[in-house]
Amino acid sequence: MRMRKKKNLEARMEACAGLWVKDPRQLRGHWREKKPDARGLRLELGCGKGRFTAETAAAHPEDLYVAVERVPDAMVIAMERCRNLGLSNVFFIDGDAAELDRYFAPDEVDLIYINFCDPWPSVKHARRRLTYESFLRGYRKILRDGGRIEFKTDNHDLFEWSLFQFPKAGFDLSEVTRNLHEHGIQGIMTDYEEKFHALGTPINRCVGTKAALPDVPVVEGLRRRLPDFEIREVGEADLAPVLALLERRPDYFTLDGSAPTLDSLRADLAALPPRCTAEQKHYAAFWRDGQPEAVLDWVEGYPREQTLWIGLFLVDGALSRRGLGKRLMSALPGAAYDGGMDSLRLACLEGNEGGHRFWEAVGFRDLRDGQTTDGRPVTIMERLAAPDAGVEGQP
Question: How far is CA 342 from CA 34, 66, 167, 387, in A?
Fold first, then answer.
């Protein structure tokens, strides 16, 4: 339900200017200057009308509070509540949870509250949930090691789903309860929480503590992001259809200087850069409707420990110019990030102007000149691995 527009909203917002941070980017890394003696910095996402914010800040004057709210008509009520209580340790941002790393520096926040966020029940909207894995990984950027997220909701399905998201994003779960107030009121309630508790709706709560981020195999990260493909490493039984795919790209092999054969394909499956082991090498095909539509050959941990080296990426010639290559490559930086990589590199043959344009279009930039083992000149290109906005197909 949408909140009604408040009368004199602009004037009321300005009357609370002392609590309203209009450009939070200017305070990035300097929030403690707002309260130099603050024991900790607590952040609330989606404060609504601010009952929880005001009462919590009043109960803990030793801490600095920052509340983020996207709806000004709700935020103005929260600010007025805090102003009327004379609170000097709480500030407000009219902003978006997806922009937190622009507002706060790494390790700047000690505790994050997520209270009764929108459950976005449709599967296709799952990535908008504030406890979605990619959001949680974003919070890691600003949350100190050992920092906590306290999450409350009345929505059972959202809570059970979220319990799987926290560990995937590197948070240890504790204090998990599916009926927080069963034996009496626990802690400070939001207005929404009090209303639904009075109706007998159980309140769910958990705490996630920032821990080491688990590595996810790159191929599994690709599967999560591309659920309409069967992605598997190429084995002996796959050689014939994969070879047929390669043969449909004579333009690539004209540059390479040799036509593909079963023997050359087997050799490529086993080929390794210097000082690498077989465990680092992966040669996978992307299958749909029983046919491979693309192949990707990569080596993890080369030439640096946290770099993923792309040896070959080829899309079926019959599917070219349909955006498939860009779609598949848009999934790789996030999968590499989940796998513990911080960058991706490749060698683009000089003269391969189309290939160079493609790699630039998916975020790669020239790093330096180089050459292949047989002396052909190449341009080494690189881009950063990074968490992405969401993972296709996750509920």
Answer: 34, 31, 20, 10
